[in-house]
Specification:
Length: 177
């Protein structure tokens, strides 16, 4: 069944609205992946609130014009799929790089993170960064540390007083015995 012009226009509108809504995307060359592998990759990316689409290059070039992903236009050549998210770029990069270890034919072509183009090798660096939950935990620890130290300083005076009183009581008992 042939794809009609209306279908192409609808796909173009869908891609354009998706590209306008995100600021992070990674282009991959999916050559060599079979259907179960692509399905598994899609499932893993959905788990981190990212999308994965195999795109037609001409439609993707048109859809990316005027968006934060416009720097990817030159890379829409050959077999191209795009993974994109508007939430956590680090989680998406971690998922892709982890999947690429099991499927070495999957190659990163280009990427845009928060509207800035990065090199394919930098996707691995992005994947090695701590994720949002880890950063939140570190921030909470740093915010909590001064309060814990303050409480320990306040608790030191009564603790020291009790220690001195205990020692005095022991000396009094030793002297009386």
């Amino acid at each position: 069944m042939a794809v009609t012009r209306a279908d192409k226009e609808q796909e173009l509108q869908d891609l354009t609205s998706a590209f306008n809504a995100v600021d992070t995307a990674i282009l991959v060359d999916y050559r060599g992946l079979n259907v179960p592998q692509v399905t598994e990759l899609r499932r893993q990316l959905r788990a981190v609130k990212a999308q994965y689409r195999v795109v037609k290059n001409t439609l993707a070039k048109r859809a990316s014009q005027g968006t934060k992903l416009s720097s990817l236009e030159t890379h829409f050549v050959g077999t191209t799929a795009i993974a994109y998210t508007d939430t956590d770029a680090v989680a998406m990069a971690k998922t892709l790089t982890t999947f690429m270890k099991g499927a070495p034919t999957l190659q990163v072509k280009a990427a845009v993170v928060q509207g800035r183009a990065i090199k394919p090798a930098e996707v691995t660096d992005l994947a090695n960064m701590p994720g949002k939950p880890e950063l939140y935990a570190k921030l909470l620890f740093l915010l909590q540390a001064p309060m814990q130290q303050f409480v320990s300083v306040l608790a030191a005076a009564p603790r020291d007083l009790v220690t001195v009183l205990n020692e005095a009581a022991k000396k009094k008992e030793a002297g009386a015995a």
